[in-house]
Write a structure and sequence with these properties.
The chain has 163 residues and is of the alpha/beta class. 47% of the residues lie in helices and 17% in strands. A four-stranded mixed β-sheet has the order 1-2-4-3.
Length: 163
């Protein structure tokens, strides 16, 4: 797997998280192929607000944005979603890009009773799940399922009890 990390803001905070290891763990657990590529960028409030407005029409900062690239057919039953995506094994499967606002993550620690490091772990898992077809905007049931999967992955990674 190719995990590309770019820290444009919040170096001290991001250095507390093994971003590549957690991303690879989540992608493996979600059944992504070995040729998966994902980029993860850490930015300031101004940049995430600009992107949030440009792509979602919402003119305020958010904590994490996910942009799917190659994608896959999430209407399958056979567990071969990534094989069905039509990307040859010898080419990168460009899963997508995740943008995380480190200042927003830091500010959310009071709301969620987490540490800044824990909050970054949650946001990274959350963003990766979005790239893997998980969603939480259409129903409370979807949100509960996605949050349960986040907790399951964090616990499996060795971080139980976050959020």
């Amino acid at each position: 797997m190719n995990i590309i990390v770019d820290v444009l803001h919040g170096e001290d905070l991001v250095s507390q998280v093994d971003v590549e290891r957690l991303a690879e763990y989540v992608l493996t657990q979600e059944g992504c192929p070995e040729n998966t590529e994902v980029s993860i960028t850490f930015v300031d409030d101004e940049e995430i607000q600009r992107l949030n407005f440009e792509y979602r029409g919402i003119d305020k900062p958010t904590d994490v944005l996910s942009f799917e690239c190659d994608g896959y057919d999430d209407e399958f039953d056979d567990g071969d979603a990534y094989e069905d995506a039509g990307v040859p094994d010898d080419e990168p499967f460009l899963l997508g890009d995740i943008i995380i606002a480190t200042d927003v993550a830091n500010a959310q620690t009071a709301q969620f009773h987490t540490t800044p490091s824990e909050e970054l772990h949650v946001l990274l898992v959350h963003g990766l799940l979005h790239l893997n077809g998980w969603d939480h905007v259409h129903s409370d049931e979807e949100a509960e399922e996605m949050e349960a999967r986040e907790r399951e992955l964090l616990a499996g990674y060795g971080l139980p009890g976050i959020r």
